[in-house]
Fold this protein.
Amino acid sequence: MRRWTTLLNIGTLTLCAVFLIVLPFFLRPYGVYILTLWAVMTVAAIGLNLTLGYAGQVSMAQAAFVGIGAYITALLTTHGWPFWSMYILAGIACFAIGWLLGYPALRVQHHYLAFVTLAFNTLLFLAFRNEEWLTGGNYGVSNIPRPPVLGWTTDPPRSFYFFCLANLGIVSVATWWLLRSPWGRAFVALRENPIRALSLGVDTRRYTLMAFALGAALGGISGVLYAPLVQFVDPVPFSLALSLNLLMMVVVGGSGYFFGPFLGAIVSVLLPEWLRFAEGYYLIGYALLVMVLIVFYPSGLMGLAERIIYRPQKTAAASATTAVPETAP
Amino acid sequence: MSDILQLFVAGLATGAIYALAAIGFTLLWQTSQTINFAQGEFVMLPAFFVLAALLYGVPFWLAVLIALALSVLILGVLFKVLLVDPMIRHGVLPLVIATIALALLLKEGVKELYSAEAQAFPPFGAAVNVSFFGATVALQSLVVLGVAIAVVASLQLFLNGTRTGRCMQATAQNPNAARTLGVPVDRMILYTFLINAALVAIASILVTPIYLAKFSNGEWLGLYAFIAAIVGGFNQVRGAIVGGLLLGVVDNFAAAYLSAQYRLAIPLLILIVVILFRPQGLLGRIEERTV
């Protein structure tokens, strides 16, 4: 039984990967752009899933980190800095700011934490908009170059899509590895029962901050990719609306499921485009669909998939995920 | 000095409106652990009910009553039955997501079905200014303040003075104990949704003459309602009043004397400081920790 599901998983994954590689050859440039946006937003949602889904800390500031990454990339690469150093600079900047933002999480929980991060996001948005000497204010930063990869240019939409897809692949593998490591298990322990985790010797302080910082760093990486994708950065995309949208992606996809953010980003990025035939009403339809989805499947699309595929093993799976790991460091 | 008094009264008037929205927000949280991210859109919508009714040639007072009835039906009963009831047992987060989607739905719905442009809204009374102590204050501000005070006072009377009101308070404090004592908890929760819907409708009709009716108004109205509720104390109606008034006054002074661009920053900074150093809010009680 277990081997059968492993085979099924590998088969599905391979099919999805092949599909994602072949798909852009059948799309017009705008379709490729939307698909690239999906890959970029998925990176940010994976980060938020780490903070929210695995460590259980509600963050409404993920858009702020995407913004920080995008502005760092926009301002420095237009002044001739090499693109590759942006991963390090944006990653470290977002990691550090995320770590600091994690401190409130040590004092307050749940909705209070949500509101602190919400306030942070809006404050940063105001700074992006008003500090014209640095960010160009509402005029933004334009003409952001796309990076060359091993001597190849990524200027054509399809090339840049493959570049972002490769980034998404690397981020996914790294996150997968992280979640299998003692760190990932400590995150889950933090979410399920922080007091028990503490009594088992998990340094809950450090892991809470770490969950925030890692999630934020992935938000930053997403921003690093966002800037050369749109080639123009202004404050509007990084308002609270994107943070709420990312939160929606994680929960609708299935918070705490590895593949949740991938599905959630499909719903959030691609679904509105598919509904464009309804013209002005497409966002209304989108909002209705999300509401229906969340009312009927509150554990998200992955929760639904799990119910369909693994029904016979449900009790075993349930007890495995709720148990606090004994190998906590 | 007269400038300060003017700003202060205008701040109190907008603050009183924020307080109404914040009280509804607090009531929903207390009785059903609903964090309503669509609260701002709830305040935006009833003004459009009034405008739509006026299009049919209905007199203003009747349009207001129609808006109130529609709000209670849609934002009260339907919101509870269709969205909150199926979601509530799955915890806070899925419901938060559902209300975020609802906010988008209401916003886009108004934009598509009514108008994307800001609409003028009939004010209360004539555009007359009242002078006292050398300050000139718009009559409208005083009317707003008066209506808000009357609404809050009657709500307090209802909550403290009637049997139903006390049952609602019992439900908010401890639903299990209340149920054991024979309080019809489910009906009490429904009442809080109805009260919230009425409060947002009144807030909407009071605030819209000042800021015009626009589909995107909910974005900042919701933010101010959250901030007022949390700064005052998330589990106290009194807290929401103090938070709302404080916010209105501070916001008005910040816009006048500090920076129009960073106007919103001051309330947000107050929010962060209060959450970090006094998370129960200025008037709130500490909620007991559950293990």
